[in-house]
Amino acid sequence: MNVTQDLSIIELIVNASLVVKLVMALLAVVSVMSWYWIFRKWFAIRDARARTEKFERDFWSGGDLAALYQSAVNARHQTGALERVFEAGFREFTKLRGQKTLDPGSVIDGVRRAMRATYQREIDDLEAHLAFLASVGSVSPYVGLFGTVWGIMHAFRGLSNVASATLAAVAPGIAEALVATAIGLFAAIPAVVAYNRFAHDVDRLAVRFESFIEEFSNILQRHLK
Q1: What is the pTM of this model?
Q2: What is the pLDDT of residues 194-217, one digit of tens each?
Q3: Which long-range contacts (CB under 8 A, 24 or more apart) does 116-121 make?
């Protein structure tokens, strides 16, 4: 028996028991899905941050709000999250300002509610699938550990059929089992790092959106005086 060949990673996976193979396959699929969403969220959050910075520059440049709103409406499919919050607020402001029965406080409350509703939808969209990354990061090591425990049980059960237990006899079975834990960690570590990074980025964007809502509400309130 060629020990070097038996202890190569490919040989260990091929010779693993059925349950361990299923665990490895599950972890491999989860890892691929995890990397897919890591790249998707990275591009989405980077794009949201860039569009937010661009809109903030345009908004605070002192341009006409009506022109800025019309520009957002005309480029609806190319606007960022903060621009959509502004669009929702200004649309509601234009609608409510024409109602003579409403006092300025009621108008601003309505505008703020409209922006808050859009803000929540945008944040929910940015946070989509972060829970999946969190689940992968927390569960994958335990799934890999289950495969390891099962593989070690299988290896020791096979020792009952041999006259004497030696390191050469038990090493391949234990090594097969430990591969499951390694794959579990390979799936979990990038997911945890990505989740922490993306959650931090979304929180920072949420703070910027909330600050804009309050500042824009104050600007609109001055327009009503």
Answers
A1: 0.82
A2: 999 999 999 999 999 999 999 999
A3: 116/213, 117/88, 118/84, 118/85, 118/87, 118/88, 118/89, 119/85, 119/206, 119/209, 119/210, 119/213
